[in-house]
């Protein structure tokens, strides 16, 4: 990252794709389905363990560990984060016009939850659980790519009250918003 007084920061992200060639986001769906299947098998194992009439030592020694293992694996697969596609580059340069347009979008649509400074302390944000993100921490170069920020604005953020803005904001507005959010990164 290069910082110059009175100029926009210049930075470069180096993203390394570690997926096998041809891997797609369908892999995320397969992981979820696998997790659900293993979890269901664990629950069936629990029911079977409780329903068989054998010595309690055998039931506790074999059935319960197998049940816990299956349920644990199921929860593990279900709790894994959803992979985010980071292949799309920001087509809008972060110039003053883009940042100003992003600030206007932020003021109209985001301030109520994220607050004036993007710290997640807006009037609606203080009552949400979980609280809205502190955008200054997510804007730090290298923490998240522009494509990740754009995807979260577009599709919402899973497990939070962050709505999907795809149908209400144009692609250009969403990319301008990403450029504006980048300006909230703390200065070092």
Quick structural summary:
This protein has seven helices and no strands.
Order of helices and strands: HHHHHHH
Would you tell me the overall average pLDDT? 81
Which architecture of the largest domain does the CATH hierarchy give at level 2?
Orthogonal Bundle
Number of domains: 2
Q: Which ranges are low-confidence, i.e. pLDDT below 50, for 5 or more consecutive residues?
A: none
Spatial shape: elongated
Percent in helix: 40-55%
The CATH superfamily of the largest domain bears the name Cytochrome c-like domain
End-to-end distance: 11 Å
DSSP, total strands: 0
User: Which structural class fits the helix and strand makeup?
Assistant: mainly alpha
CATH class of the largest domain: Mainly Alpha
Let me know the largest β-sheet.
Answer: none
Proportion of β residues? under 5%
CATH topology of the largest domain: Cytochrome Bc1 Complex, Chain D, domain 2
What is the rounded Rg? 23 Å
SSE layout and pairings?
Blueprint lengths: L25 H26 L4 H24 L16 H14 L1 H4 L20 H4 L7 H10 L15 H12 L6
Helix pairs in contact: 1-2, 3-7, 6-7
Sum up the structure in keywords.
188 residues; mainly alpha; elongated; Cytochrome Bc1 Complex, Chain D, domain 2
Overview of the structural elements:
- The chain is mainly alpha-helical.
- It folds into 2 domains: 26-79; 96-182, Orthogonal Bundle (Cytochrome Bc1 Complex, Chain D, domain 2), CATH 1.10.760.10.
- It is built from 7 helices and no strands.
């Amino acid at each position: 990252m290069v910082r110059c007084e009175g100029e926009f920061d210049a930075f470069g992200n180096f993203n390394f794709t570690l997926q096998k060639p041809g891997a797609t986001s369908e892999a995320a769906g397969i992981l979820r389905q696998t997790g659900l299947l293993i979890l269901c098998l664990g629950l069936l194992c629990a029911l079977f363990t409780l329903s068989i009439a054998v010595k309690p030592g055998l039931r506790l020694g074999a059935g319960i560990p197998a049940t816990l293992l299956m349920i644990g694996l199921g929860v593990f697969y279900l709790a894994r984060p959803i992979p985010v596609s980071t292949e799309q580059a920001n087509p809008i340069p972060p110039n003053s016009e883009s940042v100003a347009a992003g600030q206007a979008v932020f003021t109209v649509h985001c301030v109520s939850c994220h607050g004036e400074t993007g710290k997640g302390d807006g009037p609606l944000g203080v009552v949400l659980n979980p609280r809205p993100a502190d955008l200054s921490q997510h804007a730090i170069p290298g923490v998240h790519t522009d494509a990740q920020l754009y995807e979260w604005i577009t599709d919402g953020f899973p497990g939070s009250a962050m709505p999907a803005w795809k149908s209400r904001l144009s692609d250009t507005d969403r990319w301008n918003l990403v450029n504006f959010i980048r300006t909230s990164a703390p200065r070092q």
